[in-house]
Amino acid sequence: MANESRPCPCDIGDRFDYGGRGQEVQVEHIKAYVCKPASTDKAVIVIHDIFGWQLPNTRYMADMLAANGYIAICPDFFVGQEAWKPSNDWATFDEWLKTRNASKIDKEVDVILKYLSEQCGAKKIGVIGFCWGGAAVQHLMLKNPHLKTGVSLYGVIRFFEDRSSLLHPTFFIFAEKDDHIPLEQVTLLEQKLKQNCKVDYKVKIYPGQTHGFVHRKREDINPQDKPYIEEGRKDMINWLNKYL
Cα(219)–Cα(166) distance, rounded to whole angstroms? Predict the structure, then answer.
């Protein structure tokens, strides 16, 4: 259940000088960031974007989930390979991405599911992900029977655009002005989900927003964007509350 005194502490995602409320742990061959509320049997796996599991922005989101009553774990799904850095040459990005496939995370997810179940007492587990991680969420919603629900935040559609028979309720969050995900792709995804999906799903486009808006750091937030950023965070929490 959400913490009723602070039903959605969205403000914690607006502090970039933020060390995190959780701790780093080693789960078999994977490093992970974990943040836990006092007592719960519900957990959410947080899948990072190309900037990796240590990005403060992503840890805000994990801490926000914990403040809303979920065990939140953000594993290093690059498993020790370097995350992308803003200073890297974008001309090399496609080569870099070839060794970090969003559909090749099943082994790591199984390890994390076992940890959440055996070490944390989790009985209901969902997943959220951003960008690269959003695509990974779609992959997991298509095939992993152990997850209850997922939220894909500006997941890169082209990775899995030909597959839409989801196993679990899935919420897709997109930005209207996303340079990486054209609205035609979002429309096509909606059409395919309508044709093929037998579970609950939702596709929502947030007006005027750009890629990465939900986990944006404070200094990059324009005042006119803040209501949509908070709405996106609340929508994410509400979807998880509904299905976990």
Answer: 37
Structure tokens at 182: 């054209």
168 is an active site residue:
no
Cβ partners under 8 Å of residue 18, min gap 6: 12, 56, 59, 60
10, 35, 74, 131: the active-site residue: 131
**pLDDT average, residue stretch 123-137:** 97
Over 80: is that where the pLDDT of 95 sits? yes
Q: How far is CA 192 from CA 147, 198, 213, 232, in A?
A: 22, 11, 25, 23
Name the catalytic one among 49, 63, 76, 178. Answer: 178
Pick the CATH number of 23-243 from 3.30.930.10, 3.40.50.1820, 3.40.50.1970, 3.20.20.120: 3.40.50.1820
Buried b (16+ CB within 10 A) or exposed e, 52-69: bbebbbbbbbbbbbbbbb
**Confidence (pLDDT) at 164:** 80
Q: 220 catalytic, yes or no? A: no
Model pTM score: 0.91
Q: What are phi and psi of 34, to 5 degrees?
A: -125, 135
Q: Which of 48, 139, 168, 211 is catalytic?
A: 211
Write down the pLDDT at residue 2: 35
Q: Is 211 a catalytic residue?
A: yes
